[in-house]
Amino acid sequence: MADALPGELTDDEVLAAVAEHRGLEGDEELRRLASGARIEHQPLLDCTITRCVESRTTGEETRPAPFDLSGRPVVDDLDAYRQDPPKDPRRRETVRIVLDGSVREVPCHDCSNGKQQCPNCKGTGRLHCEPQVPCTDCKSVTSCTKCRGRGGSRKAPVAPAAPQKVKQPGVRVDCALCDASGTACPRCLGWGKTLCTDCGGDGKVPCRHCQGRGRWRCDTCAGKGRLTVWRGATITRAPENEEVTPPPPRAPWIVRSRLRSRGTWRETVVGPKDRLPADLAAHHRSAIERSLVGKRKGEVTRQVSIRHLPLARVVLSDVQDRVYYVYPGVSRPRVTWIPSRRWVSRVAAGAAAALTTAVLLFVALR
After folding, report:
1. How would you write the pLDDT of the chain (366 residues) with one tens digit per residue?
2. Rounded distance, CA 255 to CA 63, Å?
3. Partners of 127 in the beta sheet?
């Protein structure tokens, strides 16, 4: 049996837990269990490295005047400005700084006194609208069964009227173009068209974007007509997480998933100058140390969050259908188990044989 790694359960503790789980009592039973047991320590690791990575953008900035910059640091050199590392690398932080002597006010270059010409109506305040529209009832097809909307009477009006209110749908009325009786659509009176209800036949409607004014407030300066301009930098510190993949030996996925919320996990948060926990398994320590070699571009500081759980895999020579896993509980070691590979293979082979027999029987009976 292999020696336990630092911080792991001892072999005696592991065997005692398995014996209790199987209901074995007495020293003789424990010695018999130990003689046929193979113990392998497979501690679990859940490790996240959080790096605080800094990025900065520098350039000229503008805001509607007057703009209050009193809360921003003023520096002589934007590139040389440095901040202290954050206390919590997991928090996102943004700092905006201003170059000394660069603040000034200028007229807005996108407007005149805070107003812009409406691009929708080109400053006219009105938009084109079709003065006449096809009749919604006859669709200009059956406007008048006699003149077909072409007229014929000298008394005919020059232009269509507004849509008429239909009192008796489907009942034809006198045509306004040819004076024929009972031949015209009651909505358009034979024209096939009606005056547009939006413009009343005028051909123009107020622009909805500027409410007919032709101008609107400039978005660049918020209608102020002037801008506050300065040269500054935006410094952003954002967390970037990296999950450390534990190297072998590793417990099966089903065991790792089952124990994620069980057992007494040991939790540690390590800063950039702190040492890794002393009870960390050697292969876990090596994996974390490899991930911590060197700094990423823009890295300011980092933090390592470590959760690890001692775990022992136990195979008994006289129990071929199960593999036991022992882990520390709140008061004493606990045990869980999964089917052994040999048992799974045997069941799979039996299922395959049964399926083959069923298929052959089905073919034979057809």
Report:
1. 444 455 578 999 999 999 999 999 888 988 999 999 999 999 999 999 999 999 999 999 999 999 999 999 999 999 999 989 998 999 999 999 999 999 999 999 888 889 988 888 888 899 999 888 888 888 877 888 888 777 766 666 667 778 888 888 878 888 888 888 888 888 888 888 888 888 888 889 999 888 888 888 898 999 999 999 999 999 999 999 999 999 988 999 999 999 999 999 999 999 988 999 999 999 999 999 999 998 889 999 999 999 999 999 999 998 889 999 999 998 899 999 999 887 767 767 777 777 777 777 766 665
2. 58
3. 205
Phi, psi angles (nearest 5°) of residue 33: -65, -45
Can you state the angle between helices 27-35 and 11-22, rounded to 10 degrees? 110
Sequence-distant (≥ 6) Cβ neighbours of residue 37 within 8 angstroms: 1, 15, 18, 314, 315, 316, 317
Q: Are strands 299-309 and 312-316 parallel, antiparallel or unpaired?
A: unpaired
Cis geometry, peptide bond prior to residue 89 (ω within 30 degrees of 0): no
Q: Rounded to two decimals, what is the model's pTM?
A: 0.67
Cα separation, 72 vs 230, in Å, equals 12
